[in-house]
Amino acid sequence: MEHKFKAVSVIISVVIIILLFVAGPANAFILGFTIKDPVVTKGDDVEFKISTQIEPEEFLDIDKFTLVLNGPELQNCDFDANGNILNGCKGITITKLVSSNSTYGYGYGYGYMAGVLEFKIKLDSGEYLGGVYHTSLKMIIGESEFEKTGQDIIIGITSLQGCSLRAEDGTFSTEEISTKNNKLNLNVPLRNAVNGKGYIISQYKKGRAVYQFDIKSVIENDEDHALILTDGTLKLTGQEKIQETSTVYLDKVNMVVNVDGETFDLNEMPIYFMQRC
């Protein structure tokens, strides 16, 4: 009888060990994905840091990592656990910073690692179209895929140094209001477009809307048009102030401004003063 209980105990122990071994990889890592400076001028480097922390008692067979950039153009950069580029990766260099692995008695083939992996990735923004890019990092392990979303990166161009702009009227609209009584003021110091500021004031029957913003980046700028990203706050009478980002489209040929916000739009606003833009 005693031998029977021992046999059962051994079987249970073996089953538990097998379950832990099989279930291990799903929880075996912490994926770190950070961007040092997500807003750059075209031609500057964007620096990513990637890290995986694998539990000491477990292992993973990492097939590859994929850095995804989704914006004005789509780029998938595939690289292996040693930092070697497998596919894509336009304008990208990868440096392996840390590799701490141990076998814990198992015979692992190529790609099996346990411990810590860290990579530094540099992206030459001069190789890419200007604009906003959504980023994500995928980790492929056999048939499983783990993904972490990163910050958006913004690739801008040379600034609108000294730009001063005034416009009025147009149509300001949200889900609740629509008005043609609007004013826009935008001013960029001669030093740097990142320090540029502006506001939109829209009067309507029951109050007014005020959007105060900072210029985040200049995506495009030529003789005919400019495309400007802004970040600020929107306040409507009787409502709480909210964070709001917007894109300002400056049509220099037809002398009109259009603003595309998250919760509002401002369309066909005539420009009556424009200097150094």
Name some characteristics of this structure.
single chain, 277 residues, mainly beta, Immunoglobulin-like, 2 domains, eight-stranded antiparallel β-barrel, seven-stranded mixed beta sheet, 1 helix, 8% helix
Quick rundown:
The protein has one helix spanning 2-23, and strands spanning 29-35, 39-41, 45-54, 60-61, 64-70, 74-79, 85-87, 92-100, 112-113, 116-124, 131-141, 144-149, 153-156, 164-168, 171-173, 178-179, 181-187, 197-204, 207-221, 225-236, 242-251, 256-261, 265-275.
How would you describe the shape?
A: elongated
CATH architecture of the largest domain: Sandwich
- The portion of residues forming beta strands comes to over 45%
Q: State the separation between the terminal residues, measured CA to CA.
A: 92 Å
Report the structural category.
mainly beta
Strand order in space, largest sheet? 14-17-18-19-20-21-22-23
Helix-residue proportion: under 10%
Q: How many helix segments?
A: 1
Q: Give the uncertain stretches in residue-range form.
A: 12-28, 102-113
CATH C-level class of the largest domain: Mainly Beta
CATH topology of the largest domain: Immunoglobulin-like
| Name of the CATH superfamily of the largest domain | Immunoglobulins
The count of strands amounts to 23
Global mean pLDDT: 82
Order of helices and strands: HEEEEEEEEEEEEEEEEEEEEEEE
